[in-house]
Input
Amino acid sequence: MTSLLHLDSSANRSGESVSRRLTALFADTWRAAHASAGYRYRDLTADPVPPLDTAYCSLGRRVERHGLVPPAEVDTLIESPAEKREWALTRPLISGLLAADTVLIGAPMYNYSVSASLKAWIDRVGFPGAFTDPDTGDSLLRSTRLVVICTRGGAYGPGTPREGWDFQTPYLRTYFGGLGVADENLCFVSAEMTTAGLVPHLDRFRPLATSSLAAARAEVTALAAAAPRSGIPAVRGTTSMVPVSSRTPD
Output
């Protein structure tokens, strides 16, 4: 059965959130093309992932000392109630990621990077060895398709003055690539200048914001309708030759 894991991380849970509107468009299109039974959702703001603590670190280091330990065997290495609690919080996230054919992440830019709620999920799910086949050493996420919806209040695309200030897309590409997701399965869709209609000095960039959002909606719809694991090239997102930016993301 085809499956989709949908994660939202915008602190703005209202209908004004551009990232939430775009991920909802993807999810609705995906469920129309596939069975809804394979759809799972988590709002990382309403249902946050707890930050890591000492017990998580202790268990993780012990696992690393034992080499590649599959998640099913981590229980045998737990030495305290605190470690048991941390693993109980962590294992379902790992299982959910492994079970998904497609992972959809709404990732608004906060202070040039990702939100704290998304970072907490990333930190916890990145447990040592969780996505490595112990027999072959290959990544268990090689065929997983990752679709990241990036929204930015300003412009950070190629050719813009603040292109080098984007620590959002490169970070996520590096992180998930490091987990073993194939480059051809890393899909990024960007909607820029999302605050052009809100911030007075950006008002003149409304047409660019409108065109960026329209392009993002088209990309999202096409990706959602496509079959997973189809080798779709990574979407680089909308490019805006805009000389200004805003830190307000979503």
Q: What stands out?
A: The mean pLDDT is 89. The longest helix spans residues 206-225.
